[in-house]
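---------- Forwarded message ----------

FYI, see the Methyltransferase domain-containing protein record below. Original note from H. follows.
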Amino acid sequence: MGSHWKKCAIRRTTSWLLGHWSPDRSGERYTSVADHYFAAEPSSADVRRTVTGRIWGREYSFTTASGVFSRDRLDIGTAILLREVPAPTGSGTFLDLGTGYGPIACALAVESSAVVWAVDVNNRALELTAENAKTAGVADRVHTAQPDDVPADLLFDQIWSNPAIHIGKPELHKMLLRWLARLAPDGVAWFVVGKNLGGDSLQRWMTEQGYPCERVGSAKGFRVLRATNAGPAPS
């Protein structure tokens, strides 16, 4: 994969649930999109820090690191997803697809009695998620795994994801079909996608694939989507 770089401002606030940040005096930095999203072993130095925030009325402290998506705060899209969708309760088996350092997985396990599978291709992210689950007191119910290490016969009652849109539409569709096919018959999947990154077209596409999808929230240019399992569309 070639090197793709994006320019982004250094954030210095840790009040990331609301998505507020200010540029640091040091100006701008460049981060590798490939390193954040796709590398099993990020090439950047493992520089760690702590961020704090409030999710579903609870205070959390997370360890983050360079080479992991949105290390300085909760990504705005993820914050909107957690704000627009009520906390789940009860038992079941949940999937946090693209877990990063694990804020969704940890919050899901804290709020419910479900077993949560936190899946990512980034091993540093999985290590951080396991550490953060231990800090949150839910390490026994948060299982970190590479995609191919999830048991093949496992079905999910809920899927939660801020999907990696930047992998490109073909790979995104392939990834979503792989995991939507493992949604339980009465299961539900929650996604957040930027409108300018194809949120509306993705909603239509999932419905066409046999997973009826509706928009349940919209804020700051993001769409919050709810998909259910009606079975794969006829070929």
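H. also flagged this: The longest helix spans residues 123-135.
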